[in-house]
Amino acid sequence: MWGRPPFCIADNCAVDVRNLASARDWYKEKLGFQEAHDRREDDSGRPFADLHIGNEKTFVSLVELEPGAPVEKRHVIFFTQKLEKAHAWLAERGIIVEPITEDSGGNRLFRFQDLEGNLIEVCVEPG
Would residue 1 count as lying in a domain? Predict the structure, then answer.
């Protein structure tokens, strides 16, 4: 229905969530991710889900926090070749996206939050 997401995951990353089932559904519905079912073990012993885009080998691990545990703020970055297209694609899916900006190094980017308020940056691919 929405087509392939116009961004990629450059490096494996983890995102802490309070409700794994809701977060997993949101990433699949809103961001077009697919669940990886390779039976990887998590070192923390906490429930988790690995999600990826298409056949990519990199993934986002959603890791469920124990009740009352603090959220570890991580810098999650997705990369794109077409920043305006990625911005519009997310907005069309009902995601509130910040305006496109430029950082002090000249990189163009924007940010949005997932269902649980985790900040995710989308940046033009380097090079």
Answer: no
88: alpha, beta or left? (left if phi > 0; alpha if psi -120 to 50): alpha
Contact 48, 59 (CB under 8 A): no
Domain that holds residue 68: 8-124
Work out the percent of the chain whose per-residue pLDDT is above 70: 90
CATH of residue 13: 3.10.180.10
Query: How many separate domains does the chain show?
Result: 1
- pLDDT score of 22: 97
The per-residue pLDDT for range 82-118, each reduced to its tens digit, is: 999 999 999 999 999 999 999 888 889 999 999 999 9
Q: Are 86 and 6 in contact (CB under 8 A)?
A: yes
From the list 33, 35, 36, the residue with the least C-alpha distance to 2 is: 33
